[in-house]
Design a protein that fits this description.
Adenylosuccinate Synthetase, Chain A, domain 3, 13 helices, 3 domains, nine-stranded mixed β-sheet, 423 residues, globular, alpha/beta, Adenylosuccinate Synthetase, Chain A, domain 1, Adenylosuccinate Synthetase, subunit A, domain 2, 33% helix
């Protein structure tokens, strides 16, 4: 048995899609354990670009079984769009793609409430994608959600939607001063969604347990990043689920696997989408350079990402809350040709030095990074091994390893599947 959990070690957008795609070549099963269609995992196969929001990236590998776990909130419209793209490309999903019956469903009122909340004047904006993720999780924990298995039951489906709409439309009309949603239309859409996902719903816990007992290779895939975790991220500028590795055991139905490998995916620099603290952010020409060279625009929304230097303090914090056993370092090639590189090794706050990411949101706003300047490289990182990388690039990686006390075992030097190096 081999279980590897792949997590975003920063604020998301680290390039998990490519890492999962490459690792899934030797996997039997890929599990997705949290989040929704706000995730955007981009994979390049030759010149063909695939952006997957809900379906695990392993679906691009023939024979790999992919599971959408109970910790995910599923948008049927986004799911259908992805299925259509895959089928048009000749990638079959029937029998290879399973949805847990416990997966909660995103409905139109979730999206409407999410968008109204972000648009509300005077409210502190989180910078969500407006895809209904947060409101769907609210309903889940309020015991008012509609799960995949409930969607198939007409009586439960219609009763739950009608009851929910009484409250949702009251809020939409009276609080947000918006037009109410049409109940009959939502019921009609939900019935169609039920037939869409019906062939994919299966008791995934049994399938996962069979794979474990059969000593199959299992890859567990998260969305977003650990610094967006609802408990351990930069609250309140966080997502609504648990991207940290601990969330994998709950959201996938895998159970606790003590010897699981935990691979933290991190960029060689740092980006963030949406609002919230970003100590190493660069609002200058260097930040623009990183954005342009790295193609730093959201796969889901197209929003430009905020860019900055690598923050080793935040990354060490992430390593602790995830229990990382190794690092997969991405977009090293974006740093090619830069003479000097900086990495944050500590923070200062009111004249005092901090060596960890603080919980206090006011402190997160005020902390200032303490930088270590490292030599850049002019040669290309296009190589066939880590040992063949430019000396300065190897020293950059070695400095990370020494600071974090965690090995960098995977290095990505481009978008393609073949542009990846293993230690």
């Amino acid at each position: 048995m081999s279980v590897s959990i792949v997590v975003g070690a920063q604020w998301g957008d680290e390039g998990k899609g490519k890492i999962i795609d490459v690792l899934s070549a030797s996997a039997d099963m890929v599990l997705r354990y949290q989040g929704g269609a706000n995730a955007g995992h981009t994979v390049y196969i030759g010149q063909k670009k695939y952006v997957l929001h809900l379906i695990p990236s392993g679906i691009l590998r023939p024979g790999v079984v992919c599971v959408i776990g109970g910790g995910v909130v599923l948008d049927p419209e986004a799911f259908k769009a992805e299925i259509d793209v895959l089928h048009d490309a000749g990638i079959q999903t029937q029998g290879r793609l399973l949805i847990s019956p416990r997966t909660h469903i995103i409905l139109p009122y979730h999206k409407k409430l999410d968008q109204c909340s972000e648009d509300q004047k005077g409210r502190q904006k989180i910078g969500t994608t407006g895809r209904g993720i947060g409101p769907a999780y609210v309903d889940k924990y309020n015991r008012a959600g509609l799960r995949a298995i409930d969607l198939l039951n007409e009586a439960i489906r219609e009763e739950r939607i009608r009851e929910n709409l009484k409250l949702k439309n009251f809020i939409i009309e009276k609080y947000y001063n918006e037009e109410p949603l049409d109940e009959s239309l939502i019921l009609q859409q939900a019935a169609a969604h039920a037939e869409l996902i019906r062939p994919y719903i299966a008791e995934t816990i049994e399938r996962v347990d069979t794979a474990l007992r059969g000593k199959r290779s299992i890859l567990v895939e998260g969305a977003q990043g650990a610094l967006l975790d609802i408990d351990y991220g930069s609250y309140p500028f966080v997502t609504s689920s648990h991207p940290v590795a601990g969330g994998a055991f709950i959201g996938s139905g895998l159970g606790v696997v003590p010897d699981a490998e935990v691979i933290g995916v991190a960029k060689a620099y740092l980006t963030r989408v949406g609002n919230g603290p970003f100590p190493t952010e660069l609002n200058d020409a260097t930040g623009t350079l990183l954005r342009d060279r790295g193609g730093e625009y959201g796969a889901t929304t197209g929003r430009p990402r905020r860019c900055g230097w690598l923050d080793l303090v935040a990354l060490r914090y992430s390593a602790r809350i995830n229990g990382l056993t190794q690092i997969a370092l991405t977009k090293v090639d974006v740093l090619d040709g830069m003479d000097r590189l900086k990495v944050a090794t500590a923070y200062t706050l009111d004249g005092h030095e901090l060596d960890t990411f603080p919980a206090d949101p006011e402190e997160q706003k005020r902390i200032q990074p303490v930088y270590k300047t490292l030599e850049g490289w002019n040669d290309s990182t296009a190589s066939d091994s880590i040992s063949a990388l430019p000396r300065q690039a190897r020293e950059y990686i070695a400095y990370m390893e020494d600071y974090l006390k965690i090995p960098v075992k995977i290095v990505s030097t481009g978008q393609r599947r073949d542009q990846i190096l293993f230690a």
